[in-house]
Amino acid sequence: DIYESMSLLDLKHYISELFTGLKHVHEKGIIHRDIKPGNFLYNKKRKEGYIGDFGLAQKFTVNDIQTSNAKNGSKRKLKTNGQNRRDGYLKHDPRKPIHVDRSGTKSFRAPEIYLHSPRQTTVAMDIWAVGVILLSFLANVFPIFNPKDGAEGLIELTEVFGLKKMREFAKFYGRNIKTNLPGMPEEAPDMDELCRTLNNDKIASWDNEEYLLALDLMKKCLQLIDSDRITAVDALKHPFLKEVVKN
Questions:
Q1: Which of 138, 190, 219, 241 is the most exposed place for a label (fewest CB within 10 A)?
Q2: Is this structure's pTM higher than 0.70?
Q3: From the candidates 1, 10, 34, 87, which is the catalytic residue?
């Protein structure tokens, strides 16, 4: 398996190529909707990668986000991080507000899909999938998420993000999350601690500063609320990738 033999430098090149591909895909007005290692053709020797399988891809129209909070039942303002964030939405979307769970491979599905949110048509869905790939590598667990259905998907997310963040996430999308399952953490476990628990030997052999940069990029991808996720353009400027990004 290519991922088992990857070094942290190999990961840099891999993720850089993946984000470069997504940058071009998104600039063409396309959401891939099924980003995963099996759909990214990567040549480790040449350090080149190509995104494949556009069977679930959709065209979108790029619009400045005003706010869809009224539709989502939330008063939360969308974060911009001081930049003019632009998200993609379908130009003509005939679907009703409650969307069916049909997008991509379960292990890499964005969390808003599990809530059947109408906001299933942003390029941020692809960014989430890259975050899952990063987390899988850093924790050395492939796949890190492996739900059988939407309910199990929400449970797995709660185990990683905690009930408090999951409630905030659900509220933003106009939903509620209630559970009587024992053992669900209220607060999110520390991502660094989680990765070290699962992959301590490898992490101990890596440069700590580089590992922490990879962890930071992963966190910026794995934001529960879609508008909080980093864009492909900004990801390519992240300190973890800057030295390997091709001009």
A1: 190
A2: yes
A3: 34
